[in-house]
Structure formats: C-alpha cells, structure tokens
Design a protein that fits this description.
Layout: E1 5-7, H1 25-30, E2 33-37, H2 39-48, E3 53-59, H3 60-73, E4 79-82, H4 86-91, E5 99-104, H5 111-125, E6 129-134, H6 140-152, E7 157-160, H7 170-175, E8 185-187, H8 193-200, E9 204-208, E10 215-216, H9 217-222, E11 228-233, H10 242-245, E12 250-253, H11 265-275
Parallel strand pairs: 1-4, 3-4, 6-7, 6-11, 7-8, 9-11, 9-12, 10-12
Antiparallel strand pairs: 2-5, 3-5
Length: 277
C-alpha cells in the first residue's frame, strides 16, 4: 500500500473506493471494516492503536487540525486529502466534520471470551466488577451513550443481545466519543441463555425497570454491594422481555416524578453505574 499524505485525483479516485459505501453499514461490515467519523474520534482511534487503520480521508482544515497525529501515522497509513465539499459526492453525506477513517474490524469475541479475563482478574485481586447488558437496543445514540457512561464510570464491559445496534457503527462510535473503541464488549450468541452464563460467572443480575415489583436504587445502595454486578437494561418503550427479566436477581427502579413515565436508557445506566460505583 502506498502511504503518505496524498491528494485525491477526483471523486472517482479508486484509492478511496471504500468510502463510497459507508452509508451501507452492512457493506462496510462485510468488508471487515468500520468507519470512524469526526476529528476527536479519529484522533482517539489513532492514538489508541488498538485497531489497524486502513486509511484516513480528511479535508484540508481537518488535516491541519490533526497534523501532529496524521503526519506521523501517514508513514504507515495513507491520509487522503480532499476538499470539504467533496465528502457529499464521495460518501453521499455532507460531513461538516471533514474527517473519516476506515479501520479493520476485530474478530467478534464471545461472552465467555469477554468475561473470563474479567472474572480471573477480579477474583485474583479481590476486586469488584461491573458490566452492562443491553437487550434489543437498536438506537445508535442510545448504544453510544451507554458505552460513554460505561467508560466514564469504570464499567468493565458491555454485553449486547443479538438485536442490539453494532457498537462499531459510525454513529454509535461518534455518540460514544470513541468509548465503543475502548470499552470491551461481546454480542450474546444465545439469548437470553447467555444471562445464565453471566450468573454462573458470579454476577448478580440487576434489571433496571420502572415497573413494579422492584426496589429503589437507594434501597439497593444501602445493602452490601455484590462483588460482581451485571446491570440488565431493555428498550425505553417495551422494556425488558419477560424471558430476560425473569433471569434477574433483583428488579431495580430509579425514583422519578410521577408525571414522567421513564428515563432515557443511557441516562438511567449512567445513574445506576454512578450510584453503585
């Protein structure tokens, strides 16, 4: 691969062909890639170094803003320069941030792959562990918000049911401020069966729900904290399925004013993680 800082030769330049398909998330996944969007996210992607970056496509202004990190990286990863207005013609989207990167998607870990090192580490040192388990969360903003809260409050990992949004979808990455690139996660292969696996690994499953019967989060906080906690969260409308909710050790609610029926789920997760941090 030719590396360096390279000016594109027009919207049909074959070197940037992969960027023309970024609106099709399934196509991007099929190529074994994911898209990082925005200057802050691309900076964190490159600085972290966890995911091999295939290339970067930036406007001149974005390149100037990120030159200290893009110029050294360009020795191994090409950085393609284009005009700010070219993004619409290349990608089909008017990207005001003027900054995209294509990175290689890692192999998908299983729930066992995810939890085994966490459990081993905490048991060896007598430390606590906290994970978040999401059921049926298809909204990228909510998934990104949960990962951002998980990073902020020190959660060890996130487990997603099969129907959850891809954490490496570009909008989820952007909303999370790149936390989906840092917080370990796995997608459950068997649902809700993998909840049994989580319990066998010593996690107390706490289902967040506004519905009775449940205890308040304040009541829960007054009790001795279980060493391993798994917060189980469903959609804002329908909530958890009966099958998943039945596997929880406790149902927990966050008290709110009676005229409000529920909280945004990412907000609720942030409160729960902070309250029992």
């Amino acid at each position: 691969m030719i590396t360096g800082v390279l000016r594109i030769r027009g919207l049909d330049d074959p070197r940037i062909a992969d960027y023309r398909g970024i609106a099709d998330a399934a196509l991007v996944r099929s190529r074994g890639l994911f898209v990082a969007e925005g200057r802050a996210v691309v900076r964190r992607l490159i600085e972290d170094g966890r995911y091999p970056v295939r290339s970067v496509l930036v406007s001149d202004a974005a390149y100037r803003a990120l030159e200290t990190i893009l110029a050294p990286a360009a020795r191994q990863t090409p950085a393609y320069l284009c005009q700010a207005g070219d993004f619409l013609g290349i990608t089909g989207h008017d990207l005001h941030r003027g900054c995209l990167a294509l990175a290689e998607r890692p192999p998908a870990p299983t729930v066992a792959d995810l939890l085994t090192p966490i459990v081993a580490r905490t048991r060896a040192g007598g430390a606590r562990a906290t994970i978040v388990v999401l059921e049926g969360i298809s909204n990228a903003d909510n998934v990104g918000g949960v990962f951002r809260n998980a990073a902020a409050f020190g959660a060890d990992a996130v487990v997603l049911s099969p129907t959850c949004c891809d954490p490496l979808y570009r909008k989820a990455i952007r909303t999370s401020m790149a936390a989906t690139l840092r917080v370990p996660y796995a997608r459950a292969a068997e649902w809700p069966g993998d909840l049994e696996r989580i319990r066998r690994d010593g996690f107390t499953i706490l289902a967040l729900t506004p519905r009775p019967p449940s205890i308040t989060i304040d009541e829960l906080a007054d009790r001795p904290r279980p060493p391993h906690i798994a917060w189980l969260v469903g959609t804002e409308g329908e909530g958890l399925t009966a099958a998943a909710a039945s596997l929880a050790d406790h149902h927990v609610r966050i008290p709110i004013e009676p005229e409000v029926d529920s909280l945004n789920l990412a907000v609720a997760v942030g409160i729960a993680l902070q309250r029992l941090r």
